[in-house]
């Protein structure tokens, strides 16, 4: 899942991003509304965690732009105000969910994951295929009943492959969904991660390489 965090309090923004990355999400961070609009125009995000009171361009205008562009991106709006009228106003702008500050990080993570599931066709919360069982909320992976410990990027790649339901996923798509914008697209990070993931999942291999196209399960 790829997430954009838009928050002008840099310490909070960086802390949220770090926490979400530990949950195997690819996260980009910006600190004002203008930069947010630039990222939205360039990258495809599953979820935008959007502070409402932003410098340069207000969060309301960023939300309106996402709606006007018809993007499948879901918006979780943050604000220091917990008034019902503010929550209603934010949702009427097109936000999909609303979370007042201060918030528990566990709740933020759960809401981001729930919104991420809504950007694509409905899938069960626990993904299963070819003897592999992945629970995004618990961050658990099992193969044939045996738990497998994965690094965050390995977990993210496996989740993307399972969500494709047998379709081929290109290296570029994996890079977009499992890594943030600071990753060099010319590195072999995808190939290396898939290789270590295959090794951890064991035999027989379930990740198939489709020459010139990508990978599938």
From TrEMBL:
SUPFAM superfamilies: CheY-like
Bilayer-crossing regions: none
DNA-binding region listed in the record: 124-217
Domain Response regulatory, first and last residues per copy: 2-116
Domain OmpR/PhoB-type: 124-217
UniProt modified residues of type 4-aspartylphosphate: 51
Pfam family, one: Response_reg
SMART domains: REC, Trans_reg_C
InterPro entries: CheY-like_superfamily (IPR011006), OmpR/PhoB-type_DNA-bd (IPR001867), Sig_transdc_resp-reg_receiver (IPR001789), WalR-like (IPR039420), WH-like_DNA-bd_sf (IPR036388)
UniProt xrefs under CDD domains: REC_OmpR_CusR-like, trans_reg_C
Gene3D superfamilies per the UniProt record, alphabetical: 3.40.50.2300, 6.10.250.690, Winged helix-like DNA-binding domain superfamily/Winged helix DNA-binding domain
Entry keyword set: DNA-binding, Phosphoprotein
UniProt-recorded name of the protein: Response regulator transcription factor
Species this protein is from: Streptomyces albiaxialis
């Amino acid at each position: 899942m790829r997430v954009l965090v838009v928050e002008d309090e840099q310490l909070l923004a960086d802390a949220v991003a770090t926490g979400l990355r530990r949950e195997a999400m690819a996260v980009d961070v910006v600190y004002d509304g203008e930069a947010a609009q630039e990222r939205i125009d360039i990258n495809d995000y599953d979820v935008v965690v959007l502070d409402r009171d932003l410098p340069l361009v207000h969060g309301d205008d960023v939300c309106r732009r996402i709606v006007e562009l018809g993007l499948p991106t879901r918006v979780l709006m943050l604000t220091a105000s917990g008034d019902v009228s503010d929550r209603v106003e934010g949702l009427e702008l097109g936000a999909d969910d609303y979370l007042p500050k201060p918030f528990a990080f566990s709740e933020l993570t759960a809401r981001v994951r729930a919104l991420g599931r809504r950007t694509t066709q409905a899938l069960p919360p626990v993904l299963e295929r070819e003897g592999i069982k992945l629970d995004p909320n618990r961050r658990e992976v099992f193969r044939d009943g045996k738990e497998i410990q994965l690094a965050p990027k390995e977990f993210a790649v496996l989740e993307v492959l399972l969500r494709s339901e047998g379709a081929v996923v290109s290296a570029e798509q994996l890079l977009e969904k499992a890594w943030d914008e600071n990753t060099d697209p010319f590195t072999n990070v995808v190939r290396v991660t898939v290789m270590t993931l295959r090794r951890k999942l064991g035999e027989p291999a379930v990740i198939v390489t489709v020459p010139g196209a990508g990978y599938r399960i």
